[in-house]
Amino acid sequence: MLILAACSSPSPQFMGITPSEQIISGVRFDVYQRQTQVQVIRLSGKLPGGLPGIKAAAILAIENATACNVIADTLSGDMEVIKAQVECSA
């Protein structure tokens, strides 16, 4: 029996960064941050609502991991990988 495990492979700009693992509503995400750029990889689970539900959970994951606010109009991606920009208070 072949068992596949979800793996987190960030884009080149996030290579070498240790992700922050976040679990939102039972869905596991890895959050990578480089300055104001963030990439989220969904590693497990599904949420009702399809892509809008995943994006809502990804926003929570980003904000929990970074202590920054997601800039809403910068959110892009699909069911597996989402990118965004964040604004952090000093």
Could you give a quick summary of the protein structure above?
This protein has one helix and six strands; from the N terminus they run βββαβββ. It has 90 residues and is of the alpha+beta class. Strands 1, 2, 3, 4, 5 and 6 form a six-stranded antiparallel beta sheet that branches.
Radius of gyration: 13 Å
CATH topology: Gyrase A, domain 2
Spell the H/E element sequence.
Answer: EEEHEEE
Sheet-strand content, in percent, reads 35-45%
**How far is the first residue's CA from the last residue's CA?**
51 Å
The first-level CATH class is given as: Alpha Beta
Largest sheet: 6 strands, antiparallel
- Mean of residue pLDDT values: 90
**Number of continuous helical runs:** 1
Pick out its properties:
six-stranded antiparallel sheet; 6 strands; alpha+beta; Gyrase A, domain 2; 19% helix; 36% strand; 1 helix; 90 residues
Describe the protein's architecture and organization.
This protein has one helix at 50-66; strands at residues 20-24, 27-34, 37-44, 69-70, 76-77, 81-87. A hairpin with a 2-residue loop joins strand 2 (27-34) and strand 3 (37-44). The chain has a single domain (12-87), classed as Gyrase A, domain 2 (2-Layer Sandwich), CATH 3.30.1360. It has 90 residues and is of the alpha+beta class. Helices cover 19% and strands 36% of the residues. Strands 1, 2, 3, 4, 5 and 6 form a 6-stranded antiparallel sheet that branches.
